[in-house]
Write a structure and sequence with these properties.
Layout lengths: L2 E12 L2 E8 L8 E4 L1 E4 L6 H13 L3 E14 L2 E12 L10 E8 L3 H4 L3 H10 L22
Parallel strand pairs: 1-6
Antiparallel strand pairs: 1-2, 1-4, 2-3, 2-7, 5-6
């Protein structure tokens, strides 16, 4: 029988900029360092909102308030099905203290974020969140995360 894991992603906003972090992936690829948003795995018993707060603080040292969920995603690898929830988060400060697993960080203005992040999976995430479009994140609306049981 397969199992599930849940990831949460924090799209962290401070004023008119978003926090991008550079992570090491693999020295066998052309660009082993890639820019993205902060994500991580929920722990048993955590709410998704508390998990994203914990992960952003652990990985970037930035306290955040969770604003709203932006979108969900999922994929399967072997017998593990991964479900992800991306949240818009408001940073309380622009001071970043990275964990050892991250290489660099930068606050990127909305109009430059598509130029900084080249990872196509992350670019799709940005488009889903409305960061590359002319409308504001508030126009994107909320995502229904729960499916009603069938009769």
């Amino acid at each position: 029988m397969g199992r599930f894991r849940i990831l949460v992603k924090g799209i962290v906003q401070y004023k008119d900029s978003y926090l991008a972090v550079e992570r090491w992936y693999d020295d066998r690829i052309v660009e082993p360092y890639q820019w993205e948003f902060i994500d991580g795995e929920m722990e048993f018993g955590e709410t998704p909102e508390r998990a994203v707060q914990r992960i952003v603080e652990e990985k970037a040292g930035v306290p955040v308030q969770v604003d709203k969920p932006l979108y969900t995603w999922g994929f399967s690898a072997g017998e593990i099905c991964t479900i992800g929830i991306a949240f818009l988060c408001d940073a309380q400060t622009d001071q970043v203290v990275l964990s050892e697993e991250l290489h660099r960080s930068r606050w990127v203005p909305k109009d430059k974020i598509g130029q900084v992040i080249s990872n196509q999976a992350v670019v799709k995430d940005i488009e889903k969140a409305g960061l590359l479009n002319s409308f504001e994140l508030d126009d994107f609306g909320k995502v229904d995360l729960f499916i009603e049981p069938m009769d």
